[in-house]
Model the fold of this input.
Amino acid sequence: MFCPYFDEGSVGTCGASASRHVPSIEKMETYCFKQTYRLCPTLSEYLYENNMAMANCSPKKSWHTGK
Done:
């Protein structure tokens, strides 16, 4: 099973990144084409930012200081 955010088009872009970058071959082999895609740092950041947006929070705002 490969990452659901990986677009297999002619170039192979990452849909979890804002810039739709092309991952390196090493990253593709490590994350995009295997079950380990859940460990991908780009995917982790994407999911974190989406969770913050859904919770109506700013990711830069600290919960304990309110800043």
About this structure: Helices lie at 25-32, 41-54. The chain has one domain: 6-54. The two ends are 41 Å apart (CA to CA). The mean pLDDT is 82.
